[in-house]
Specification:
- With 173 residues, this protein is of the alpha+beta class.
- The protein has one domain: Peptide deformylase (Peptide Deformylase).
- Helices cover 29% and strands 29% of the residues.
- It contains three helices and seven strands.
- Strands 1-2-3-6-7 form a five-stranded antiparallel sheet. Strands 4-5 form a two-stranded antiparallel sheet.
- The longest helix has 20 residues.
- The protein is globular.
């Protein structure tokens, strides 16, 4: 497994709509494994392929946070939301591409998602709570949308400025 570098906002690759996966290959399965490894290492609970510079409709996630509970890694190819509840939840969201920045985002509290698993089988599942927020956040990445796009223009500009400065500082080493 290979840890992949995570793109930091602003980066034009984070704003592109990702291409659907036409055919599952061993390379794509390996990419999913690498992404899970990268996500756990970060540490995070979700990661989308565009965040590592690959414009493919693939997300990984694991929202198990309880100490000692077994991990529940999910790799989803071509995930799509089939249904969303009218009831909403507000979570303080963060993003591996926008480090150390958090903001409250309102999303449907429950969603039904369909995807292709690494074995090529179609899956569908209802998600609620943190899992629902995470899957929506990651699918947004596949559509070129970041959680800061839900914020006011002023808050979004503030966070973008911070990220630009962070990238400058990182480039200086």
């Amino acid at each position: 497994m290979t840890l992949r570098p995570i793109l930091i906002h602003p980066d034009p690759r984070l704003k592109k709509v990702a291409a659907p996966v036409a055919d599952l290959s061993d390379d794509l399965r390996q990419l999913a494994d690498d992404m899970l490894e990268t996500m756990y290492d970060a540490p995070g609970i979700g990661l989308a392929a565009p965040q590592i510079g690959i414009s493919t409709r693939l997300i990984v996630m694991d929202c198990v946070k309880d100490e000692g509970a077994p991990p529940e890694p999910l790799a989803m190819f071509n995930p799509e939301i089939l249904a969303a509840s009218d009831v909403t939840n507000v979570y303080e969201e963060g993003c591996l591409s926008i480090p150390d920045q958090y903001a409250e985002v309102t999303r449907p509290a429950e969603v039904t998602v369909r995807w292709i698993d690494p074995n090529g089988a179609e899956q569908s599942r209802d998600f609620a709570g943190l899992w629902a927020t995470c899957v929506q956040h990651e699918i947004d990445h596949l559509n070129g949308k970041l959680f800061i796009d839900y914020l006011t223009p002023l808050k979004r500009q503030l966070i973008t400025r911070r990220m630009t400065k962070l990238k400058r500082d990182m480039a200086r080493g």
